[in-house]
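User: Protein folding is very new to me. Would you mind checking the protein record under this note? It all follows right here:
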Amino acid sequence: MPTTIKAYGAEFSDAPLKELEIKRRELNPKDVKIKIEYCGVCHSDIHTVRNDWGGSKYPVVPCHEIIGTVEAIGDDVKDFKVGQTVGVGCMVDSCRTCPSCQDDLEQYCEQGSVGTYNGNDKHLGGHTFGGYSQQIVVDEHFVLNIPENLDIKATAPLLCAGITTWSPLSHWNVKRGDKVGVVGLGGLGHMGIKFANALGAHVVMITRSKDKAQDAKDLGAHEVLISTDDKQMQEHANSFDFLLNTIPVKHDMNPYLGLLKRDKTMVLVGAIEPLEPLHGASLILNRKRVAGSLIGGIKETQEMLDFCGKHNITCDVEMINIQNINEAYDRVTSSDVKYRFVIDMESLK
């Protein structure tokens, strides 16, 4: 029989999150049951709760940045054991057979990957519920090993903010000596700086705000470029090997494209919405590219976590209790956090 547990969620788009009850499935042979200890708060949680993108299914129980302890395993589970610290990111299932899944890119599953929340629950019917809850049951394929040396509280946001920025840096082969620009300093941007720095790149934080300059340097940026300063932008024109654009809202990409060298790429990871018109000359005159990137597959996410373990990389976080989640949402939308909230799930008792 399914197990009833406590959770926090929203019953409709303009409702505050509150305590409610949800059900988790019984263990299947390949399942791992996880007691949830920490949850990162992602802007996607807020968009889904408030139905900003459409298609939200209520009640919404958010969170796809989950850290916890294995409580039980199915009979056929080989790679995890009771008591182990593990993570669950943005996906809990995919078709496993399409070309994308076979290439370890489950996030691009041609049948549609199953989101940790707001996805189709093939076991219980209805939709999936995320980590603002006491426990979760997940197929072992989508469970991740957490390096023992990392602070697990600050590791939770790596499972979305971390992999979202790591994947393009890895795919476009950012390497030692490259000049890399990280556009926008927030939950994603601060991780982009840390990763690019650890990969050996010369990292330039690109921001509209002079007030963020010292924070960027503290995170590992070697330079700060103020994008509203025409003189600075001209000095850096045609000099970047790669741009990671983390701006989460509609904006004009044309000035940033002027920073790229010939044949180089700017990758969008933040703005899931229409953008300002792109001038064809920005691309054509120097054979430049704009691309997009969505989180990462399970194999790549594990590689990211292992890299973080080797280089002792975690997120900068502020801890909260679940009862403060509505205030935290307001602060996230006001950019009043450095740089991710993490919920101590012991507060849900």
Observations:
- The mean pLDDT is 97.
